[in-house]
Amino acid sequence: MAFVLGAHFSPMTCKVVNNTHAHADDAAYIRRAVDLSEKSAGFTSPHPNFGCVIATSTGKVAGEGYLYAQGTKPAEVLAVEACGERCRGATAYLNLEPGDCHGDHTAVSALVQAGITRAVVGIRHPLQHLRGKAVCALRSQGLQVDVLGEDLQSKVMEEARKSCLIVNAPLIHRACSRVPFSVLKYAMTLDGKIAASSGHAAWISSKMSRNRVFELRGRSDAIIVGGNTVRKDNPRLTARHGSGHMPMRIVLSQTMNLPEEANLWDVSEASTIVVTQRGARRNFQKYLASKGVEVVELDILNSRDVMEYFHDRGYLSILWECGGTLAASAISSGVIHKVFAFVAPKIIGGKNAPTPVGELGMVEMSQALDLIDVGYEQIGPDMLISGFLQPVPDLMPVIPSEDETFAIDPTVTPYESSIISFYKTWDPYGAFSNFSPHPIQMPDRDDNYVTWSSVEHYYQAQKFAGVNDPAAQDCVEKIKAMRSPEEAARVGRSMQRQHSDLVRSDWESMKIDVMYRALKCKFSIYPHLNSMLLSTAGSVLVEASPHDLFWGGGREGEGLNYLGRLLMQLRSEFLGESSTSTENTCSAL
């Protein structure tokens, strides 16, 4: 089914609904979609949270679903499958406007083909190149689409809309401020201490509170601590949920005054990055690198620059578990968005006992920072107090999507640039990523075609393909079974690191060819991807990973950018084939 994504729509054609009872029902279903959207937290690295609830005309929930990870079935598809024939004439409730990868209208198509007649959308997509597209597509197919805050306005709707903003706060903050969404977490006694005067801090909070912290870690891309925490506490900073996403562990140290032995230097379970100032203890940097720890040098080590760097690496959400000095620096830099404070019913006293936040330069209580949307929750004997230091940016007023803008002003040309960067699948050119949700079929060693969920699944599995060891075949099958490209990458890299003896001996010389064949398959079998690639003719394609200096371009162009090179090579080949085909046609005429 074809969709006119560029169709212009005037908000003035919408009918404002004022029925209080209908608003209450709509709001309840949207909040249910919000709750569903959080179900994947802790199993994949943070991504946009999508939930979908389908309710019949009688008000009964007939189907629901949530996005497990980028590259897996959309929430809307899962809800439609659960609903079946009851979709006819039903209403779909979405906490977030669908944001399909370029040319993939699976979510929209599922709702239209199932016979859904109305869709209620909590918020439009926060990313500009996706914003409004699905809303336009659904309306162009005859569905009534009501967007909270635009078409449905009431107090109960505003509360439901707020929950939609909060559940996708990481993506919204990242889009608006160009830094990851950062949460400061700490545990303190009733008299405001995070350790005794001696520095001893195990344990302030209860086991139940610590389990909640593991959950918070699992929802985050990374955890940040300072050098002092490494020296005094020797933490592991793992999520400890037994499986699923393990956040990156980040240590900030200006001088690299760090111990030679530390739990964080063991990267068998989770990876570690040490960020330092340029030139600090180069020999120790080499020592850490020999243990598999990545070291990143910045010209000046401050919280804002660190967050901008990790924004460039594609991180959405970061948990700060640092001491008071670093916490104060991060707050002063304006990079902390939310606070989780676990308060234990204990008193330890001590004039020199450390507190959770160091000097902020405030001398009067009127200067104190007030939390917004404060929440209170008792966890065992402890009290969890949470709140935002910065409000979640509001997406109002509506900013037209690029398609809508083009409909108004045809002189506007989207993506006009000589260098085209891509990284995350939700970026404008995200379909170029190996993580895009485009299955491919590749022949095995017996020339039997096997379906892989993504290019990344295939690439990671080929590290172990053909090795005469049952354990290597187990690696292939485990990677193939992963539900998302992110998980396939994590498992493949972990197995390569832990079981290097199972990696095929020719891998380093063959990996470029493996990637080339997978990409050629992908861009050959999907016409819209082929057209997208050809449309970039004349532009340099750069995989914008700042840390993968082989496949990516690096932060300052120091990377080899082999993924971008392969795509440009394929583009040239496809253009050549197109040119040859045209010449043959002309000759025949």
Automatic annotation (TrEMBL):
Listed EC numbers:
1.1.1.193
Q: What's one Pfam family here?
A: dCMP_cyt_deam_1
Q: Which UniProt keywords apply?
A: Chloroplast, Glycosidase, Hydrolase, Multifunctional enzyme, NADP, Oxidoreductase, Plastid, Transit peptide
Give a yes or no for keyword Chloroplast in this entry. yes
Identification of the protein by name:
Riboflavin biosynthesis protein PYRR, chloroplastic
PROSITE patterns linked to this entry: CYT_DCMP_DEAMINASES_2 (PS51747)
Q: In which pathway does it act?
A: Cofactor biosynthesis; riboflavin biosynthesis; 5-amino-6-(D-ribitylamino)uracil from GTP: step 3/4
**What family is it from?**
In the C-terminal section; belongs to the YbiA family.
Residue ranges of every copy of the CMP/dCMP-type deaminase domain listed in the record: 24-146
Name of the top EC class for this enzyme:
oxidoreductase
